[in-house]
């Protein structure tokens, strides 16, 4: 597989599809599904909730940073936050507009935000999400909440987060990644 640092606009969609098909079969960090199953489920849930196409694409691509960071697969088990959201953002913003990349970049902080502002949200997290929340800084402080709420992408990031939590069901049939090719191509920067 091509190194993500050498990907161009002309081959990014092929690269993403290849990554889903090769690296996507890895276990999704403490869940009972694969990485690609999780991301595909998130896109399906976003579509079922009639999200904007940019949010469906963000839901599909939100965890690609797990394929690109320099840490071992089980780094969270060793107390390391891979900052996969930043890795994904650094890669994706070369090819996609903010309406796709900002919800991706913000999806971890959206979990922290929701745990701070919605008393029952923490109880909806999977065991693996609770573990990663600790590594990611825990629920936001009041000051962090206020700053996070200033983003024009707040609603999309929160929607993505809710789709992300719903996209962890073992045995759910999803479309193949290739079925999202046209959506990935549609949002490419000119």
How would you describe what is shown here?
The protein is an all-alpha fold. Helices cover 52% and strands 0% of the residues. The protein contains nine helices and no strands. The chain is globular and about 45 Å long.
Low-confidence stretches: 75-82
Kindly report the oligomeric state of this protein: single chain
Class per helix and strand makeup: mainly alpha
Largest sheet: none
Estimate the mean pLDDT confidence.
Answer: 86
Sequence of secondary-structure elements: HHHHHHHHH
How many strand elements? Answer: 0
Straight-line N-to-C gap: 25 Å
Helix content: 40-55%
List keywords for this structure.
mainly alpha; 9 helices; globular
Summarize the structure.
The chain has helices at 12-22, 35-48, 53-61, 84-92, 98-117, 127-135, 142-148, 154-166, 181-186. It has 190 residues and is mostly helical. The longest helix has 20 residues, at 98-117.
List the helices and strands and how they pair.
Elements: H1 12-22, H2 35-48, H3 53-61, H4 84-92, H5 98-117, H6 127-135, H7 142-148, H8 154-166, H9 181-186
């Amino acid at each position: 597989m091509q190194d993500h640092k050498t990907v161009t606009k002309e081959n990014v969609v092929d690269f993403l599809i290849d990554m889903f098909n090769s690296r996507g079969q890895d276990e999704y960090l403490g869940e009972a599904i694969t990485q690609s199953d999780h991301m595909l489920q998130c896109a399906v849930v976003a579509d079922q909730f009639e999200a904007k196409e940019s949010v469906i694409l963000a839901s599909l691509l939100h965890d690609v940073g797990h394929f690109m960071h320099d840490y071992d697969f089980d780094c969270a088990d060793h107390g390391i936050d891979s900052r996969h959201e930043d890795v994904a953002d650094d890669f994706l913003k070369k090819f996609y507009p903010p309406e796709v990349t900002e919800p991706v970049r913000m999806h971890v902080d959206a979990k922290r935000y929701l745990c701070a502002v919605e008393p029952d949200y923490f109880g909806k997290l999977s065991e693996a999400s609770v573990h990663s929340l600790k590594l990611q800084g825990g629920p936001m402080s009041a000051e962090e909440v206020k700053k996070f709420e200033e983003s024009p992408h707040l609603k999309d990031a929160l929607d993505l987060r809710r789709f992300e939590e719903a996209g962890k069901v073992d045995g759910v049939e999803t479309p193949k990644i290739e079925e999202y090719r046209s959506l990935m191509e549609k949002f490419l920067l000119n």
